[in-house]
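Please check this.
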Amino acid sequence: MRYGIAVFPSKKLQDLANSYRKRYDTKYSMVPPHLTLKDPFDMDEEKLPAFIEEVRKAAAAARPFTLKILKYSSFYPVTNTIYMKAAETPALLDLQEKLNEGPLKQDREHPFVPHITIGQEMNYDELSDVFGRLKLETIEHEETIDRFSLLYQLEDGTWTVYETFLLGRNSAT
């Protein structure tokens, strides 16, 4: 089965992201706006209990953090993706590292860039036009993040929450 780990921001930030995603993100209907902490990976279901135990340890050792959205940016020319750039705060980077070390380690295709995607798989002209307009806009958003979720992918490609983990605690919800 395919899994991933992500933070879901507040409804306010999700609504802002979705105002763009519904027009520019081909995966709009597959998953709500999120910040990926661990890229999608395949794992046999029998390994899931031990994996979840390691994720619980990482969550307990981490602390809530402030998610700061700084600006709109793009991964062009690597991919035709536009996103909301999040600040690389020590607590966010620490959590991402905890979820990607030891028994949770996996190779990454790209370096960790904290962001919330708002457009992807766009053609160059559309990307250039939309990003050109967004670069002129200011975005200042801050919120406290105190949890993250383990997701799994359904057969139709959509993602759903398997379990949510509170930061700095040994319990899950």
